[in-house]
């Protein structure tokens, strides 16, 4: 499995949100897409799933996503969107079962292989204790973990998670990042849109820094999260120190 972007551009209305973005995402790597609010991170993630029209080429296993059926793309790339609202009072177990829909023929039922995948996802996302709860009654953090379990239940070779740490307490943020890291270590293509630069630096193998719809840096966290890049992209003065294998970022204030 590989995902490759070649000069991708996305316009929403009259605004160019993504401009000539090129990058590749390989198996065994947890890649963080970082950048300020409005930089185009989530739009780029949605373009990879053919959820918004785009120019340029987006290829999954050398096949353009625009030519793939929705079901086939969903089997290959699982998606955890940000801030998803739940409208139906489903139990947690039933909600996680929905992750198996790409594998089911119309009117077919959950089989043994699907049940096993659902159980694995529930355990990996640490929501076994919630399985009989109604999903619409969960806290924001509980809901975020349940939706992650639904994405994991697909058992696709690639996973795109858009702001997976939102609404989570620090302990569960660590759990989620370790889970995503584990998915990558097991050979998956894992892409996470992140705002927390410290967590991105600690857990990601690689970062793609986006500003104003353009990829401005691509490399290891130490290569990307430099004081110069943080000043240019975020407009902040920051102290960057290497702690072990990852940089620690201390924000000093707005650049003057």
Automatic annotation (TrEMBL):
<comment type="similarity">
    <text>Belongs to the ABC transporter superfamily.</text>
</comment>
<dbReference type="InterPro" id="IPR027417">
    <property type="entry name" value="P-loop_NTPase"/>
</dbReference>
<keyword id="KW-1278">Translocase</keyword>
<keyword id="KW-0547">Nucleotide-binding</keyword>
<dbReference type="GO" id="GO:0005524">
    <property type="term" value="F:ATP binding"/>
</dbReference>
<dbReference type="Pfam" id="PF00005">
    <property type="entry name" value="ABC_tran"/>
</dbReference>
<dbReference type="InterPro" id="IPR003593">
    <property type="entry name" value="AAA+_ATPase"/>
</dbReference>
<dbReference type="InterPro" id="IPR017871">
    <property type="entry name" value="ABC_transporter-like_CS"/>
</dbReference>
<dbReference type="InterPro" id="IPR003439">
    <property type="entry name" value="ABC_transporter-like_ATP-bd"/>
</dbReference>
<keyword id="KW-0813">Transport</keyword>
<protein>
    <submittedName>
        <fullName>Iron complex transport system ATP-binding protein</fullName>
    </submittedName>
</protein>
<feature type="domain" description="ABC transporter">
    <location>
        <begin position="3"/>
        <end position="237"/>
    </location>
</feature>
<dbReference type="GO" id="GO:0016887">
    <property type="term" value="F:ATP hydrolysis activity"/>
</dbReference>
<comment type="function">
    <text>Part of the ABC transporter complex HmuTUV involved in hemin import. Responsible for energy coupling to the transport system.</text>
</comment>
<keyword id="KW-0067">ATP-binding</keyword>
